Amino acid sequence: MEEQQYSETHNESVEVDELTEEGRARLRKEQAEMRAHRKPARGLVIINTGNGKGKTTAALGVLFRAWGQNMRVVMLQFLKSQTGKWGEIRAAQKMGVEIIPLGEGFTWNSDNLEHDKALARQCWQLCREKIESNQYDIVIMDEITYAINYGWLDVNEVLSTLQARNPKMHVIITGRDAPQALIDYADLVTEMTEIKHPYHEGILAQKGIDF
């Protein structure tokens, strides 16, 4: 089972030559070496960034998976409107999971950026409280990169909080243009790359897919 789990996570895209006997032997050797040098499990900082769609969706997938493992999870959303009835909010309410939207929509539509800045600071303070409370196994800060890049949050303040957290706590950060300082500190960084998007064909956001 352990070998199977490692194979599935480490080799998500199996090359054709790895299906040969020689390829399988090489994979078994790699797996044995990994087990021999395996480090103790610890909390990870995970970043989903890039211009492609799916950053929040991927974080929600981890939240759902962790909830299934009886882990304590919370997601705080920097841009989603507090009054929105998004699909993930409805699902979280049924599951008894904390997903907390603290924004007022996308800031490029805003006519009061100072108010948006104050909301971002409020959301960050709540993030800090959740992280420092040591009551969660996973804390997700959805779309926090925008607040950092707009200059509303100090990236060094965010890093200090991450460094001081419980070493077993996982933190997931989502949003475009993740600052290099966060990327350097993170354990896992995935860049979503847009290849095609229905928006460019005039197809707007759809229920169940986008919200």
UniProtKB/TrEMBL annotation:
<dbReference type="Pfam" id="PF02572">
    <property type="entry name" value="CobA_CobO_BtuR"/>
</dbReference>
<dbReference type="InterPro" id="IPR003724">
    <property type="entry name" value="CblAdoTrfase_CobA"/>
</dbReference>
<protein>
    <submittedName>
        <fullName>Cob(I)alamin adenosyltransferase</fullName>
    </submittedName>
</protein>
<feature type="region of interest" description="Disordered">
    <location>
        <begin position="1"/>
        <end position="22"/>
    </location>
</feature>
<dbReference type="InterPro" id="IPR027417">
    <property type="entry name" value="P-loop_NTPase"/>
</dbReference>
